[in-house]
Design a protein that fits this description.
OB fold (Dihydrolipoamide Acetyltransferase, E2P), 16 strands, alpha+beta, 312 residues, 7-stranded antiparallel beta sheet, 6 helices, 5-stranded mixed barrel
Amino acid sequence: MKKSARMMSLASALLLTFALSACGTAKAPAPEPGDVPANTTQEDPPAQTTDNEEPSDTEHEAISATGTYNGQGDPHTIEIEMDGKPTSFQLSENATSQIEGLSEGDAVSFEYVEHPVEGSDTPQLEIQTIEKTTDGTSAGAPAGEEGAAASARPATETIEMMGEGMPDKREAKLQQGDGYSLYVFDAYTFDAAKNKLFLTAYPEYYVEIEPLPSDFNLDELRKEGIEELKQYGEAKEYSGDQLFEGPMYDARFVLQVSSEKGLYEYAVWEPEGENGYIFHVHSPSGEPSETFLTPALTSVKTIKADKAASDQ
């Protein structure tokens, strides 16, 4: 009898517990829309990438260059021969569409940037813009009607100049410019689109070539040159015997500013039987300035006008 009473009491207690639990659940308010239960884990939003983590291309100075297109290795890589050396370049999104229509052996002018590579001294080279030029084929000979006059000249030439007081012979390759051709030494690049010859590794060292009309006026050019060089200092004029030992010994005149900032020149040169040229020389102070000038000026003095241009 006592055992039956205990069983009934236990059953009553269980029923009461279930009733209270159900009542509590019914009275609990439903979570509002958007509420997150306390036991639910929220994922943090992805961290924003800062400019410092991935520098943009605008932080790298674009370098202008010319060369010979050797073909495409993969959808993002091409090879260009510069100064006789094959060089691999990555393609920017913009440049990818610009290589359409290029063939192996085409002369090209392009701009690229250097991206540092962690743990390596060799940067990654990425082309920003590229276009076909009329400079010539991989052999250095010009192609098409525009290069017909230049093709009569040898593709390469051994040229002698004075280096550190001693004769120095170097081989140079023929390049086609705007109405003229010239020979260019290794370690230098000629940008035909800009009429600019510069050190490949240091583009800030350059000579800009400006063709002159047949009726140019020396006095007017002298005034123009003095005004152009004023930003670097007071220009001094040299001509005749004063230029005897330098590459520009037969120039009509050379205006020069030489200071701690570097050496800057405005030289008027007129080859026999042809129209003249102005050479705008930019050689800032620095180690490259010690070897830049003589080969650069020797190179621009190999200029020869195309027949069509000289007949005008």
